[in-house]
Amino acid sequence: MTDLSLLSGPIPLLVAATGAAGGVWLLTGRAGWFRSGAIPLSAATAAVLTGCLWFWVERVWRPLPDPIPLTVYLWAALALWAVTLLVPRILIAPRRVWAATVSVLAAAAVVAACAVQVNLFFAAYPTVGAALGFEHVTRIDFRAVPPPTPTPISGRPLDSIWTPPADMPRSGAVTSVNIPGDRSGFAARRADIYLPPAYFTDPRPQLPVLVLLAGQPGQPKDWLTGGRLGTTMDNFAHHHGGLGPVVVVADATGSTWGNPLCVDSPLGHAATYLAEDVPTWTKAHLQVDSDPGGWAIGGLSLGGTCALQMATNYPQTYPTFLDLSGDPEPTLGDHQRTLDAAFGGNQAAFTRVNPLDLLAEHRYPDSAGVFVVGSHDDELKPSIRKACDAARQAGMDVSYTEVRGGHTFAVWAPALATEMDWLATRLGLTSS
């Protein structure tokens, strides 16, 4: 059951049909006051509540740099209509307990159908299991991660000198651990770390590292649910003798709704955390390639913006990057708000760390990256192309790719899988 898709197949259709039936039940009532008063009043109430929600989120709170799509608010309005209609629908049958029970179930069905439609838009939960919090990965305690081996296998490309042992595990494993902000003071949440099958061998190959970042709102676990990280990495390892990068899914925001803009500012020293704390801790606690050529950083949405910032501000640490639907500059939604919150209103301070300004002023002949955007992400595509052109003019070896879809995991999950061959060659895992 946990493998059933929430994005295609029978489940979305079944939930939609059940929600439609629930909606019909809620709207059918014989009392005249119900048809002429309760139904339009509940619709008006849902509309007002949704309008207030939109105003609070988009004009007051403004937690996201980009507006939430109108479609999401429309589905929220429909769910609220079902909830507000529930009480009068029950009142028209006060002595019929079964009717009240059916009404509650009908409202729940409508809400569930709306939630599935929103999930279809973002593709954040691809399966029933993902929505319930189940992961298709082997979880181990960090204390169970095997210690360093005395004679690790090193060389480039690794696949030319690596022979997988017979007792190597068939799949990798994920562990969770706190990576402290010793130098930055950044209060990060626990990181998820994927270790490929080859990490559990002796002798062990000296594996490269991919630091991955989630979006906002988000958490590191998003890469394991909507991003299908475990499946992608296990599939790659299966076709490459158990080899794959060690993937550190680090926390760049500190909270679900936080946005420290991946810079060092009053919002938090996220830049130092990612550029110094994460690499230092990883090299000290995991047996990985310490050469910068074996390190890459990538992310989706806000995480993609952050990956580009790291690649331009700290090319000596991250000479390779994956920018999946990231904005070309750090932003809280508008430029002045960004300046005021993170840079004290100082445009020069912003310019010193802004990727486009750095790409215009410096050369990056040793850096390479991939820019990916959804083919339907019309608002972001022009700026992604602009960033890619600027990177190419600055000497970076970069490419631009469009994946069918919008600003969702339906783009980001397959993009990571598609770019793994290029990334593995770049990081010295494979020859081609």
Could you describe the 3D structure shown?
The protein is of the alpha/beta class and 432 residues long. It folds into two domains: 10-128, no CATH class; 135-426, Rossmann fold. It contains 13 helices and eleven strands. The protein has helices at 10-27, 32-61, 70-91, 97-122, 128-131, 229-238, 270-285, 302-313, 335-342, 347-353, 355-361, 381-393, 409-426; strands at 138-139, 173-177, 191-195, 209-213, 246-250, 264-265, 268-269, 295-300, 320-324, 368-374, 397-403. The strands form two sheets. The chain has a nine-stranded mixed beta sheet, with helices on both faces. Strand 8, helix 8 and strand 9 form a beta-alpha-beta unit. Helix 6 (229-238) packs parallel to helix 13. It is globular and about 80 Å long. The two termini are 38 Å apart. 44% of the residues are buried. The mean pLDDT is 95.
Sum this structure up briefly.
With 432 residues, this protein is an alpha/beta fold. It is built from 13 helices and 11 strands.
CATH topology assignment of the largest domain: Rossmann fold
The top level CATH class name of the largest domain: Alpha Beta
Mean pLDDT: 95
Tally of domains: 2
Percentage of β-strand residues: 5-15%
Helical segment tally? 13
Under the CATH scheme, the architecture of the largest domain is: 3-Layer(aba) Sandwich
CATH superfamily of the largest domain: Alpha/Beta hydrolase fold, catalytic domain
- Radius of gyration from the alpha-carbon trace, in angstroms: 24 Å
The arrangement of helices and strands along the chain is HHHHHEEEEHEEEHEHEHHHEHEH
How many extended strands?
Answer: 11
Q: Which structural class matches the secondary elements? A: alpha/beta
- What would you call the quaternary organization? single chain
Global morphology: globular
Largest sheet composition: 9 strands, mixed
Fraction of residues in helices?
Answer: 40-55%
Name the poorly predicted regions.
Answer: none
Strand order of the largest sheet: 1-2-3-5-4-8-9-10-11
Distance between the termini: 38 Å
